[in-house]
């Protein structure tokens, strides 16, 4: 997880999130379970199934005094010692129950409102860099240049594999070359005042975002401000928040009368934006499904998941797949169809099943994006336990090629070389996030996520003008910038670090992958309003006027722009590009070489 355990020059944004090992195992103090109980009543000539929904509030008490302790045999003979330990255990349970009751009393409408907040703090600055100081060897802090270097090298190695005649369907081995690698970026949003991760979560929930919501706040454990480099901006707490469309796996045991004991997983890879109209939306969908590059990304992830499910079969935890006359049990995302020459999905990986089968892909549509997806399902055997299956899948599925690459180890080595050591620490981004229980487990992939850092009051120091720039002074990347600055005030402020990644395969381009990541990060960055416009925020009055003009047009419903690039309209072009990034999937711009042609297109 760490960028470099021996590097003492960088402040780790993920301090407090589990140490060098990374990760948390949490026993919830309060657990709300919503369950559906199904019962079947035999009434000739058939049966009636009835469902009943129940909600249970459970609390988990932890009593350190009840832990087994080493006591000398002599002390254990004394009645007074036994009575003392018994009283400590009883007092421990009483204190544990009191802590839980205090938590329950705090769960009011003020803590968890039924509706989201109407506004979030405005973005004061937006910056992105590799974390290197300007002048260092390599990318000089330019995030665009560093990303271009990584994508270019990845494509070179992938093409080298193709020229050498490598087989995409071979089992993994150390000699394999790269087939896919996922490179990520991080954008830091400096906010004008403190932001709550729960408010961001509520905005996503009620703002039409589709997916699994997740949130983690490890609290200030006293170590966040030990580093003298953070004294100018002492940290109050950090929150990890997001809304992911991707599930890693789900395991269901036989409970509440439901005899379906199944494990499911899914391959989510291949991306397009949403269209402004239903017609444009469908065109983008057809383009996505017909894209050889995007389909290749999904097939790579699908093969990886099938191998992990096959390992469960070999352990005896999944029932064996059926033949040509059934759908099988390990890959229900496949249709078995007749016809010669229609065997498999074209990649030669049939996993040993008989019969002709064709992968059934579908498109998962979100608010801003749409992705190619295929699902996998297997039926658990009688000897399988949810815990054993979950452990096996955590080891076998994470990280999938959708967030890492293929083969996994080669991709990890590449990421460490071209992203981690020269850029940033992914931390919990793209990691497994969920729960594992006795009778069920549900784990998602923590993408479309952000790390919220809330600062304490600096006693007069402005969060913008106190000399702090997070090492991101070079925020003007090769593919555009959005760095407007205002200062003043004594607000502690917050920093929201938004993460996004894209898979590089044969057919990828630097600009295409950069744009795809920008659209993915836009799902979160578009939640925040831009800072109030002031002349002091911009390099010139022309830039300020152009930004105000474009924002007013968008507010009035103008979302399609036609641009004839030239030096005289550069401020307008930059303002439109900034609006596109702030309103992902809403504001569009088309470059036209002739002004007269642009005018005709603009009027239809």
Short note summarizing the structure:
The chain is α+β, with helices and mostly antiparallel strands. It has 12 helices and 19 strands.
What does this structure look like?
The chain has 604 residues and is of the alpha+beta class. It is built from twelve helices and 19 strands. The strands form five sheets. Strands 3, 4, 5, 6, 13, 16 and 17 form a seven-stranded antiparallel sheet that branches. A six-stranded antiparallel sheet has the order 11-12-8-7-15-14. A hairpin with a 3-residue loop joins strand 14 (432-436) and strand 15. Helix 3 (143-163) packs across helix 9, helix 6 crosses helix 7 and helix 10 (541-555) crosses helix 11. The relative contact order is 0.15. Residues 1-6, 69-77, 170-174, 323-356 and 460-489 have low confidence and may be disordered.
Write the layout of secondary structure elements.
Elements: E1 30-43, E2 46-59, H1 73-76, H2 79-106, E3 123-127, H3 143-163, E4 180-191, H4 197-206, E5 212-216, E6 235-244, E7 247-252, E8 262-273, H5 278-289, H6 292-314, E9 334-336, E10 357-359, E11 362-365, E12 369-379, H7 386-397, E13 405-406, H8 408-420, E14 432-436, E15 440-445, E16 449-455, E17 494-504, H9 510-525, H10 541-555, E18 560-563, H11 570-582, E19 588-591, H12 595-602
Parallel strand pairs: 18-19
Antiparallel strand pairs: 1-2, 3-4, 4-13, 4-17, 5-6, 6-16, 7-8, 7-15, 8-12, 9-10, 11-12, 14-15, 16-17
Helix pairs in contact: 3-9, 6-7, 10-11
